Amino acid sequence: MADGIYLDNNATTMVAPEVVEAMLPFFTEQFGNPSSLHQFGDKVGRALKKARKQVQALLGAEHDSEIIFTSCGTESDSTAILSALKAQPERKEIITTVVEHPAVLTLCEQLEKDGYIVHYLKVDKRGRLDIQEYYDLLSDQVAIVSVMWANNESGTLFPVEEMAEMARSAGVMFHTDAVQAVGKLPIDLKETSIDMLSLSGHKLHAPKGIGVLYLRRGVRFRPLLRGGHQERGRRAGTENATSIVGLGKACEMASEAMEFEKSFVRAMRDRLEQGILSQVSHCFVTGDPNNRLPNTCNIAFEYIEGEAILLLLNKMGIAASSGSACTSGSLEPSHVMRAMDIPFTAAHGSVRFSLSRYNTMEEIERVIEAVPPIVEQLRKLSPYWADGGPVEEPEKAFAPKYA
Amino acid sequence: MWDYSEKVKEHFFAPRNAGAVDGANAVGDVGSLSCGDALRLTLKVDPESETILDAGFQTFGCGSAIASSSALTEIIKGMNIDAALQVSNQDIADYLDGLPPEKMHCSVMGREALQAAVANYRGEEWVDDHEEGALICKCFAVDAVMIEETIRANDLSTVEEVTNYTKAGGGCSACHEGIEEILMKVMDERGETFDPTAVAGEIKKPTSGLTNLQRMKRIEELLEEIRPNLQRDHGDVELVEVDGKYIYVKMIGACAGCQMASTTLGGIQQHLAEGLGEFIQVLPAEELARRAAMGA
Ligand SMILES: Cc1ncc(COP(=O)(O)O)c(C=O)c1O
């Protein structure tokens, strides 16, 4: 990789060189409109067909026509939820979780203002759902369940296959935002009851601005964008052919790298986590360590703030991200950390390291060396810290007046 | 990531006066843990002269919180406490060559920390009376409480009025939906319903008939009216040329090169257009030079 150590792959990934290479001709000689009858269009049309098959293979979808190309993960999420509401106007309820990505949460909050009833499933301190609570909410009033496969911040996995099964038995549509899961976990949709699934190219080494909505054959659907006949009228607008070709290639590569992801990427992640936890006191892994993405580790460093950690890491060329309020410009730390009831003094200090197959063990060792002095430096400035440890009863010793 | 000035970075990477002061006789603890920024300020005050002999900070917070704590201690060391109490959050931000608007809100707790420390030194109880809500307008750092109170105090009923009173919504427009929601709530309290199509105040019909000289004077007067606003933000404006409907101005001080310059020009244009009752365009003076060079 270029300069620096990139451990922010849940935010976005490097476009794989092979993907770039596959895309380049579609900027130049292969510029035709895939809908055109002539040879210029026909070649591009064939390339899209191949890409659709490549995506189908990675997802284990039964038919390639179940793949709808969109402009991003967010569009796929919106399309899925709004389609379910439009197609079943008599159903006014939605089930989702408190830890969804804003692509789902913000839409749901808006839908509440429009009169829909949204049930937000809570999580426990490890970020796990209460399946009984979910089961009790399923009814013929529910238009759609939308639950993420893997959480972008903690990496925690939800049992979506089991939940989709329960939804099907209750006659309710099931959508999963699998933006963080696709490419990192084996998926075989034809063996599940999942009706709709969102993915986003830029999380699996394809470019930004390309996404997919998987739509199981036979599921009632209403398009978000109406217009031309592209994507069989389910998503109008001339195809982003170049990016679709890139996504196809990226999916093919992800299938091939799946074993590597499960073994080597996981080993690097585990080494990073163990290396940091063994050297730094008063920090802990957030989420469910036994049930999460192989590439993600989220560590809360107590008594210091995440943005300050990131700035110091960045100075050493290390890129990660944080759930602190300051990194997002909001007033509250990440909703995911708050949902897991992580205290403010730790939630603001949560740092997410997300790896990819392009990282190396040598990079991981460098990060393990860099982190402890940074934490120590910031703790020296912290009012909660004195003489190498937290002050006694920190929350009482320093209880600032709200200003 | 944030667009921090070199000065902010310098004070973050190498903070001055970190840690508690030995023999401190004044302590101020302020901040908000939910925001993730809190500060303990310790001072050593000379009881005779009431001069601040030493100042130290301990901060739980982000880059700009640490930098502004460091800046605060640098500013107040050696000051008399009464003089130190005059230091404003804006002074701290200026010392650091500015802070992103989102960061003004939570991270600059300096003034409050000082007040709390001085109250502690004098054996008084410090109560903070200012309340803050969620940041609504990110362009001009205006929060929900401020907007709500302004709407209530002035019986406002349109987004445009809110913008005129608080600046909120005068930039990128992203917060208009948020402002409408606050309007809806407050108007509901006073038994009215918010009407998104309502227009602020009366619409002035274009009134012409001014002589060139009268028009020029009127433009000067109108600029005079908004000058205090700009000066409050440490900037100013100068009239350079009037050419038909084109009015050329020069932005001075903090307004020059400010990222909000085009918004400010927009605001001036709106004010002049309303005051003159005609359609005009306010352009930066550089544009005049460019047009002249092109022979246009
Ligand atoms: C879980 C999840 N859903 C949705 C998205 C949005 O995807 P996109 O950026 O392609 O719209 C992201 C990306 O951050 C994500 O992590």
Main attributes of the structure:
heterodimer, A: alpha/beta, Aspartate Aminotransferase, domain 2, Aspartate Aminotransferase, domain 1, 2 domains, seven-stranded mixed sheet, B: 296 residues, Sufe protein. Chain: A, Arc Repressor Mutant, subunit A, GMP Synthetase, Chain A, domain 3, three-stranded antiparallel sheet, 12 helices, 17% strand, binds pyridoxal-5'-phosphate
Summarize the structure in words.
The complex is a heterodimer of chains A (403) and B (296). Chain A is of the alpha/beta class and 403 residues long. Chain A has two domains: 17-254, Type I PLP-dependent aspartate aminotransferase-like (Major domain) (Aspartate Aminotransferase, domain 2, 3-Layer(aba) Sandwich); 258-379, Alpha-Beta Complex (Aspartate Aminotransferase, domain 1). Helix content of chain A is 39%, strand content 14%. In chain A, helix 1 (17-23) runs antiparallel to helix 7 (241-279). The model of chain A has no long low-confidence stretch (mean pLDDT 95). In chain B, 44% of the residues lie in helices and 17% in strands. In chain B, the strands form three sheets. Chain B has a three-stranded antiparallel β-sheet with strand order 1-2-3. The longest helix of chain B has 21 residues, at 212-232. In chain B, helix 1 (6-13) crosses helix 2 and helix 7 (144-154) crosses helix 9 (176-189). The radius of gyration of chain B is 23 Å and the shape is globular. Chain B has 296 residues and is of the alpha+beta class. Chain B has three domains: 6-121, Sufe protein. Chain: A; 135-201, BFD-like [2Fe-2S]-binding domain (Arc Repressor Mutant, subunit A, Orthogonal Bundle); 212-294, GMP Synthetase, Chain A, domain 3 (2-Layer Sandwich), CATH 3.30.300.130. Chain A binds chain B through residues 303-308, 310-312, 314-315, 324-327, 329-333, 344-345, 348, 380-384, 398-403, and chain B through 1, 12-13, 15, 18-19, 29-40, 57-66, 102-103, 105-107, 109, 112-113, 116, 126-128, 130, 134-135, 138. The complex binds pyridoxal-5'-phosphate (PLP). Pyridoxal-5'-phosphate binds at residues 72-74, 101, 103, 148, 152, 177, 179-180, 200, 211 of chain A. Pyridoxal-5'-phosphate is lined by residues 72-74, 101, 103, 148, 152, 177, 179-180, 200, 211 of chain A.
